[in-house]
Amino acid sequence: MGPQPAAAYVLHAFARTAVSQVSRDQPTPGFTQNRGARHYPDFLKPKDQIVLLSDIAAVVRAAPSFQPTMPRTGKPFSVAMTNCGPLGWVSDTKGYRYQAQHPRTGQPWPALPKRLMDIWRAVAGSASEPEACLINFYSATAKMGSHQDRDEADFSAPVVSISLGDTAKFHVGGPKRTDPKTRYELCSGDVFVLGGEARLAFHGIDRIHAGTSALALEEIELGCRRINLTLRRVTAG
DNA sequence: GAGTAACA
DNA sequence: TACC
Questions:
Q1: Residue ranges of the alpha helices (H) in chain A?
Q2: pLDDT tens digits, A12-52
Q3: Which nucleotide's C1' sits nearest to the alpha carbon of A144?
Q4: With CB atoms 3.0 to 4.6 Å apart as the test, which of A6, A134, A159, A182 could cross-link to A194 if both were Cys?
Q5: Where are the domains of chain A?
Q6: Closest nt to A78 (CA→C1')?
């Protein structure tokens, strides 16, 4: 069996009325940009975060979290995931790909919640509508190794990432794995956009700062401390 | 190499 | 950095 499904976590988190904001080194108006990588701190207010969690709860009810594995080796990822939208990103021993059905239930992915479409429209400029939202569930010890998002047919649209729960140490490099990295702390409610020059930048999650958000503190026993939503355009359009 | 383990 |  894989890790605990994240559904219970999401449902309980929604029931809470408070999402604490972590103190920051610097209050940042608007966003900061570095070669197409844009960081929007506090893009979602606490109330927006809670309402978005209700959307995620509905998604997970229809599409339970699953444990992806590495191509070839079959080694499991430390994160659990699910998807919503017409297409979902999956990984197993056969490789990385987008597909229209949940790998375990065989059902189509749930629709993209309107609130996610609204976030996309607010930060993705003139790009076509997103087709996939990958939802990653991070435990206190989960990480995401440095990688590129390159399984899409269309790189003209940006990748839009939304953070909920505990703060994560995030890095963004360049199109080569060895390019120098910039590090960010991604807090609950932050939005991060990889577009333009940064669309194919290597990026990853180095660590989770467990206990930095009341959202995640409620569900220590289930192990999920952070949720990341990644919106993507997959097909040319 | 969207993984881990071992290393200095 | 090595692994398979």
A1: 7-15, 46-62, 114-123, 214-217
A2: 444 443 334 333 434 345 899 988 999 999 999 999 998 99
A3: B2
A4: A159
A5: 7-20+32-232
A6: B3
